[in-house]
Amino acid sequence: MIEVEQLSKSYGPREAIRNLSFQIEKGEVVGFLGPNGAGKSTTMNILSCIMPASSGSVKICGFDIFEQTLEIRKLIGYLPETPPLYSDMVVSDYLTFAARLRNVPSGKARSAVEQAVEKCSLQDVSNRIIGRLSKGYQQRVGIAQALVHDPDILILDEPTIGLDPIQIIEIRKLIQDLASSHTIILSSHILPEITQICKRVIIISDGEIAAVDSLESLTTRLHKGERLILKVRQNDSDIIEKLRALNQVNTVVEQETGQFTIDCEPGSNIQETVAKLALDNNWGIVELKQASMTLEDIFLKLTLEENEVTQ
Amino acid sequence: MKNVWIVAKRDLGSFFNSPVFYCVTTVFLILYGFIFFNILSYFSFQSFQSHQLRGANIGLNLNEMVIEPSFQNMAVILLLIIPLITMRSFSEEKKSKTFALLLSSPIHLEEIILGKFLACMIVTGLMIFLSGYSTGYLIFAGQPETGPILTGYLGILLMTGCYVAMGLFASSLTDNQIIAAVTSFGLALFMWVIGWGAQSAGPVLGQVFEYLSLITHLEHFLKGLIDSSDLVYYFSFILFGLFLTQRVLESSRWR
After folding, report:
1. Which CATH superfamily, name and number, covers A2-220?
2. For A19-34, what is each residue's pLDDT tens digit?
3. Which fold has domain A225-291?
4. So what's the ipTM on this one?
5. Given A49, A76, A84, which is nearest B98 (Cβ)?
6. Structure pTM?
């Protein structure tokens, strides 16, 4: 549905994104992940036709982004990082305006607005002035604006930024509900959010793609070995050596006093051996657990590897 | 065309919701009313005097002595006031990031610009209409020629179009409303006085300056004359202003 090839964009001499290529299928929920300034918003602005790319091609539903922007804009609902809200307008008037701008005929505008209001649970505030609403409601009005014309593709740039935890949960739930009927591209630098909502992630770092994959395969791909964390009360200097002497153990690092990270071969299951060793030597075992690699680790690892390469 | 109206309608709504419009209109009407009153009372004083000195009332013409100077003064007040109407058009959209909504919608940039132009013209047109009580009163109380009044209004409207086009251009350059207002005020004033440089600029360039000046062309309209060269001037001025606006906005997307 969306094909991006060799997309680059530079602001003057500064390259915001370099040679991005990825594809998104119909009905997918894709997360754009990357640190601040990695080029997420730039990519989204290009996809939603707000700014043209410096080079490369984008095809959305077969339409070329340079030649047929108007066709593409009809298919897309876009929520920029700052929701484009006219603070002096009433919510329902604003949504009607957005619907009319997106070619919803005037006869159908009212029902389109009603649906959007319902989807985003804005019934209570639909007659209030946008500028007086709380940030959470404003964000929802922003989302309502993006889906008022029932577009095939929703592009949401950091939809939960600046919200309180309850509002974040509500917005996430809303996006999950929308996922059944739309193709959604979502950007965030908050990792748990992506894990919860998206099935596939595109990790961008420094304007380049660090990884494009499903969450599961990303986790397995980077999960090259197993890692145990051992906490003991005793502080003998030979603990490290004794642990290193174990079969299948690759490295042992003492993170802080009495806490060791043990990296071992995949599938070695040495918890029992480690526990026995600790008991036999009277180290006073406090904790022994398997550390799983979170998306956070993957993200850090990928972006750091990226940096090492460039340096 | 439909899209132009959608954009214009929203802008009108925001004009009528904001205190800026009411403030600007009030100031305009008070200033214009004061000037009109003074011109009219001077005229009635003169005609009273010439009435007393019998036979000397030749040359006391309501059109020439009241209506023409009123229009000229109105043009000056509009010069000061239209930048305050146009300043928000693009600057505010840029500042509050709402421009993204327009840019990501299936609508041409030209339609956005025309919509904003139309909204500003309607607002200023309304202000000029409200000031129409003055000429209305003159028609009711005296016998002025209606021809020059109508062409006068046409000239004022065309000139307003030029101010608005310049104002939109200035507004497209920046996201700061004050800078937009000052720039468009400066541009408008410059195009107003450019004719003054005519004498010292030599025969050819002098004529060019003379032709470029906004007032020279208004004079003909105020005298009741619709000259095609004036129409060409005003329309090309407006189109050029809107064209520059389009260029600025389009190029800012690429940067």
Report:
1. P-loop containing nucleotide triphosphate hydrolases (3.40.50.300)
2. 888 888 888 889 888 8
3. Alpha-Beta Plaits (3.30.70)
4. 0.87
5. A84
6. 0.83
